[in-house]
Amino acid sequence: MTQLQEVSVDDIKHLVSERAIQGETVLLNMGPQHPSTHGVLRLLLELDGETVVSCIPDIGFLHTGIEKNMESKTYAKAAVMTDRLDYLNTLGNNLAYSMAVEKLIELDVPDRAQSIRVILAELQRIASHLIWLGTTGLDVAAMSTFLYCFRERESILDIFELCSGQRMMTTYIRPGGIWRDVPVEFEAAVRAFIKMFPKRVDEYEALLSRNPLFLDRTFGIGAVSSEQALNFGMTGPPLRASGVKWDLRKARPYSGYEQYDFEVPTRTEGDVYARYIVRIEELRQSVKIIEQALNKMPLGPVRSSNHKFVPPPRSEIGVNMEALIHHFKLWTEGFSAPKCAVYNAVESPRGELGVYIVSDGGPKPYRIHWRTPSFDNLLALPFMAKGVLVADLVAIIGSVDIVLGDVDR
Amino acid sequence: MKPELEPTIQALTKTFNSQVNEFRGDVRVTILAESIVAAAQMLRDEFDFSLLSTMTAVDFWPEENPRFEVIYLFTSVSKILNLSVLVQVPGINPSLPTITGIFKNAVWREREVWDMFGIKFEGHPDLRRILMPADWEGHPLRKDYPLGYEEPQFTFNFEEIDLRKPYAKE
Amino acid sequence: MGVEQKLANMGAVTTTLETVVNWSRTRAMWPLLFGLACCAIEMMAAEGAHYDMSRFGMELMRPSPRQSDLMIVAGRVSRKMAPVLRRLYDQMPEPKWVIAMGDCASCGGVFNNYAVVAGVDEIVPVDIYIAGCPPRPEALIHGIMTLYDKVNHNKIKDQA
Amino acid sequence: MLLEYTAIAIFIIVAIAIGFIAIGLGTIFGPRKKSGIKSMPYESGMDPIGPGTRRLPVRFYLIAVLFILFDIEVIFFLPWAIVFRQLGWFGLIEMFIFIIILLVGYFYAWKKGALEWE
Fold first, then answer.
1. Average pLDDT over residues B16-36
2. Which residue from A25, A216, A379, C142 lies 20 to 30 Å from A97 (Cα-Cα)?
3. Rounded percentage of chain B residues whose pLDDT exceeds 90
4. What is the predicted pLDDT for the residue at A88?
5. Which portions of chain A are predicted below pLDDT 50?
């Protein structure tokens, strides 16, 4: 029997209180492989019986160096890596990256592409909220919500597969518009989904909203006031649940959001139940946006015709010599951007998703920084987890809705 | 340049000597390293830039003196404004004062900049590596750090890569 | 070791015993709940009602390695996660199998840089590689079917 | 008389046999490979910090005792439920008294705050 490999307490002495060093409180790893950490997040918990004395998050277990990898790819090829960042909001990442590149090289986007982008981004928001609802239901022992939510998510993934051929990593939104036009059946599929979905949200509400067990587990737990939320840098549903009405789709409308009228749901308590209510309300608002965007979707081209930056369609290459030259240049060396830095933010289901691109005039981005919302939302976890039971900590992690690909990049 | 941003820019240029440049509607103010704490305090209290959206660094490697450029991006939720503040940092033992006292989310952002670029932050509560393993040497996002590209295994070079690939024994 | 190693070459007896033992192993192979990244979402979709992986005996995703027979590495393994993955593999009781789900687990996939282990076979011996980024739930179930074929054909003699 | 007892005996033997067969096959045919890391305590993939066995807070003990108390009460219901018809009114009243005594204990524990975690 080999000697037990123990990590002695003194190499993390500066983090925990001295009661842990005397051995009074238990130091427990709610580690990278844990059913309720929604991914590979490690929490070093200092427990006094069931109550959490302090919680020290340790992230980086899913760090894949996307920012460094994107520096060695041209702008068009780096778009493929953006899907893998926040893998629940793939089209939202594409949208953030494409709009940042369009801002960098001042590329126009036709209206049809703008409204299709809004429809797909909102569908992706619904799919992401559905996964959050399913897994939070699992964490709070409401097993059936997981199966209901994934049933609806399958119909959304069918729509994505309809227009792009891939279920999740579509890279369908690219700089200059979208990859190709949506098929004819797209509109019918989306209309069918919008007609069916509100009734399903009422089903979820019937399951959870007034369920006394759910209320006991979520009411008044992990409350964050609006000043603290802003100070922690929280954005998205957790911030709106604390009473700050900050939604980038309303504050800085992009891609045509100003034409659609929808409300931004906010609550004031800022606890786990408030975040639940805000996200459930956002599901309904997204359906409203999709409906209006679908009605206003104009006909026309879906990708900018400025072939210096956007590869020409395949049909033109055989016929038009200039298109062939553009095609060859774009796919070998790529277009070069002016020497400057640009920041562009988009409202992802988790908060403000921003892309900061520094370009040195070459075809490859010199530096890309992703401002990901889960990184800051997770920062408030130790503050929310002080003096809370371990079971409530599980509900708090669920309510903050972190995605580890978003946190570690 | 949005009109509401004017007073902020005047106040910034008056108190700290700073250059202002604008590109595509984003305003960027470059100030000295020592005055970043005062600037952050002023922006948050007087001009209500209550959210530090992000904070990151860029490594202009061949240039040695101002090698790093650290970017603080402040957002004002009430006035819907964005302002980025730039600080030049030299290449030899780069260090900056910390603003964790003013913005709590700077704690992790600064740890990430230390982990990825090696810029020290004096006064930071616990400056440890955040994304890389604790015993990792080197700072990955520096330009002189290799990408770590390994030759992918295709059919033509299958055998020689198979030999040197460290397969896991049982 | 089990008794079957001792009476390894008794013709008909061991072959029928072999088929019974292998049959019993493929009927309720419980995977370890070990979702890393995007492939984990597709694994959850495969576990959901539409694709229903539990038709193949995978009803329960056991979070603890002590009660799981199969480790599905669903996602990209970073350098910081590699020792944890190896420890979990070691703490799983025999007989155990590993499925590398997705390109990132099989060969590093899209990420060819300092942070990602290029292929999980550098850390744990892999039985089945599933291509796709992320592989569709049907691809995962096809991978599980191939694993069942592999288990059904493995001989008792060469069981270490 | 004897017939019923043989039925129960067969029932018990078969139950025990199935238990032993299920576990026995596993131990006989299952390959076993001891290793240091395998016997190490599992802490979601990380090294455990500090000694495994340590003093636990008293609240866990309190909850355990209360559970045992009321669990035994439920076990006493089982034989009563079987001969429920034959006992008639007498059995019913007897069982109510038994339940009321335990309810008094339950309310006492509740008011003393034994059920609260803090």
1. 87
2. A379
3. 36
4. 93
5. 1-5
C-beta atoms of A369 and B59 within 8 A: no
Q: Residue A80 and residue C110: Cβ atoms within 8 Å?
A: yes
Distance separating alpha carbons of residues C47 and B7, to the nearest angstrom = 57
Strands (E), A262-361: 339-348, 351-360
**Dihedrals φ, ψ of A396, to 5°?**
-65, -45
| C82 interface with B at CB cutoff 8 Å | no
Q: What is the CATH number of the domain that holds B47?
A: 3.30.460.80
- CA A26 to chain D, closest CA, distance in angstroms equals 8
CA dihedral A381, A386, A391, A392 (to 10 degrees): -70
Q: Does B169 map to a domain?
A: no
Nearest to C122 among B132, B149, B168 (CB): B168
To the nearest 10°, report the CA torsion of C98, C104, C106, C110. Answer: 180
Domain count for chain B, please give it.
1
Which amino acid belongs to residue C155? K
Bridge pairing between strands B68-76 and A51-58: unpaired
Residues in chain B closer than 8 A to A379 (CB atoms)? 104-105, 107-108
Q: Is B133 on the interface with C (CB under 8 A)?
A: yes
Average pLDDT over residues C115-134: 91
Across the interface, of A62, A68, A153, the residue whose CB is closest to C36 is A62
Options 1.10.645.10, 3.40.50.920, 1.10.357.20, 3.40.50.360; which CATH number does A106-304+376-408 get? 1.10.645.10
- Domains in chain C (CATH in brackets) are 29-152 (3.40.50.12280)
Among A2, A5, A33, whose Cβ lies nearest the Cβ of D45?
A: A33
* Strands A42-48 vs A51-58: parallel, antiparallel or unpaired: antiparallel
pLDDT at D36: 80
- Compare all CA atoms of chain D with the CA of C66 and give the residue at the minimum distance: D42
Residue of chain C whose alpha carbon sits nearest to that of A34: C63
Q: Give residue D58's pLDDT band: very low, low, confident or very high (50, 70, 90).
A: confident
Q: Which residue of A has its CA nearest to C32?
A: A33
Query: What is the interface pTM, i.e. ipTM, of the complex?
Result: 0.87
User: Which of A29, A38, A62, A394 is most worth mutating to test chain C (most C CB atoms within 10 A of its CB)?
Assistant: A62
Question: D117 in contact with A at a CB cutoff of 8 Å?
Answer: yes
Is-contact B11 B42, C-beta < 8 A?
A: yes
In tens, the pLDDT along C14-58 reads 778 888 888 888 888 899 988 899 999 999 999 888 888 888 888
Q: Residue A64 and residue C38: Cβ atoms within 8 Å?
A: no
Report how far residue C134's alpha carbon sits from residue A166's, in angstroms, rounded to the nearest whole number: 9
Quote the CA–CA distance of C32 and C89 in Å, as a whole number.
10
Read off the pLDDT band of B55 (50, 70, 90).
very high
Q: Which residues on chain C are in Cβ contact (under 8 Å) with B132?
A: 79-80, 115
Nearest to B51 by CA among B107, B105, B120: B105
Q: Prior bond to C134 cis, omega within 30?
A: yes
> Which CATH number applies to D57-118?
1.20.58.1610
For position A3, what pLDDT does the model report?
37
* B170 part of a folded domain: no
3-class secondary structure, A341: strand
B73 touches chain A (CB under 8 A): yes
Classify residue A223 by its DSSP letter: -
What's the whole-number average pLDDT of chain B?
A: 88
- Write down the pLDDT at residue A343: 93
- Give residue A128's pLDDT: 95
